[in-house]
Amino acid sequence: MATTADIKNGLTINYNGQLFTIVEFLHVKPGKGAAFVRTKLKNVKTGKVIENTFNAGVKIETVRIERRPYQYLYKDDMGCNFMNTETYEQIPIAPDMIQNVDLMKEGQIIEINFHADTETPLTAELPAAVELEVTATIPGEKGNTASSTALKPATVETGAEIMVPLFINEGDIIKVDTSNRTYSERVKK
Known about the structure:
The chain has three domains: 2-63, SH3 type barrels (Roll), CATH 2.30.30; 66-125, CATH 2.40.50.140; 129-187, CATH 2.40.50.140. Strand 3 (18-28) and strand 4 form a beta hairpin. It has no helices and 16 strands. By secondary structure, it is mainly β. It has strands at residues 2-3, 12-15, 18-28, 36-43, 49-55, 59-63, 65-76, 79-84, 90-93, 109-115, 120-125, 129-137, 151-156, 161-165, 173-177, 182-187. Strands 1-6-2-3-4-5 form a six-stranded antiparallel beta sheet, with no helix packed on it.
C-alpha cells in the first residue's frame, strides 16, 4: 500500500474499483489547513480523464502494469489475434480495447498493457506513427483550392479513411499519426 507521497506521473492506481493512470499531480500545502494532492486521472479502459483531490497521507492502492510487444496476426470472430514476439503465445483481444484499430495492419508490432497480478490484457497501443499505402483517392486538381492546406479523402490499405494533401496519389506510402489520425508525411520508397 502506498500513500499520496508516492504519487508520480504514470503511476497506475485502483480508485473506486477501476484502474486509473496519473496524468498530472500537484502537491498543495496551503498556509492554513491540511495539505492535499490535486490529480488528473485517466481511466485505463475508457481513456476518460477525471480530476480528483486526495488528502495528504491517504493510502492508495497501486497496480503494476506491464507493457509487452505483440505482433498483430489477423482478425476473426474472437477479435484481433496477437502473438508474443518472445514466447510465440497467441492471444485474442477485443477490437474495442484498441484505439484506432482500423490503422493496424498485419505483421505490425503493438504494445499491449497487462495487469501484472492477474495477467489480463487491459489496452493495446499502436506506435506513434504507422506507414500505410494509399489504395484509393481522387486525383487532386491544381488551382481548385483557396488555401495551400487543401485536403482530400484517401483510403489506405487497412480500409481507414485519412485526409491527405492534394499531391498524394494512389500507391503512395504515407505516415499517419495514430493519436489523432492525421497525415504526417509522404514516405520515400
